[in-house]
Amino acid sequence: MNIYVANVNFRAKEEELREVFARYGEVTSVKIMKDRETNRSRGFGFVEMPNQEQAAAAIQAINGQEFQQRKLIVKEALPPRP
DNA sequence: GCTGAGCGC
């Protein structure tokens, strides 16, 4: 299941974000999108979890949760670009 | 060192 996470602290690393989701289930991949030119974090990313139940539970639990002084916004990711 | 809407190559 693809998960979209926004309002992420710009200093957050992918492994740190992965640890947050790993508490609620198995995490296969974490991607934090950064600016292509300045290489600066955009403050949002994607997390992929194979287990649908754990993914749904993680979204419910982590959404609105504080992460590095920021309230995380976790939703189900939209379908990728066609 | 810089900032803050929101969907990725």
Overall geometric form: globular
Count of discrete structural domains: 1
The count of DSSP E runs of length 2 or more, i.e. the number of strands, is 6
Measured by DSSP, the beta-strand proportion falls in: 25-35%
Reported CATH architecture: 2-Layer Sandwich
**At the third CATH level, what is the topology name?**
Alpha-Beta Plaits
The helix content is 10-25%
Quickly count the helices. 2
Characterization of this structure:
- The chain has 82 residues and is of the alpha+beta class.
- The chain has a single domain, classed as 2-Layer Sandwich (Alpha-Beta Plaits).
- The protein contains 2 helices and 6 strands.
- It has a 4-stranded antiparallel beta sheet, with helices on one face.
- A hairpin with a 2-residue loop joins strand 4 and strand 5 (70-71).
- The longest helix has 11 residues, at 52-62.
- It is globular.
- The relative contact order is 0.32.
Features:
82 residues, alpha+beta, Alpha-Beta Plaits, four-stranded antiparallel beta sheet, two-stranded antiparallel sheet, 2 helices, globular, DNA-binding
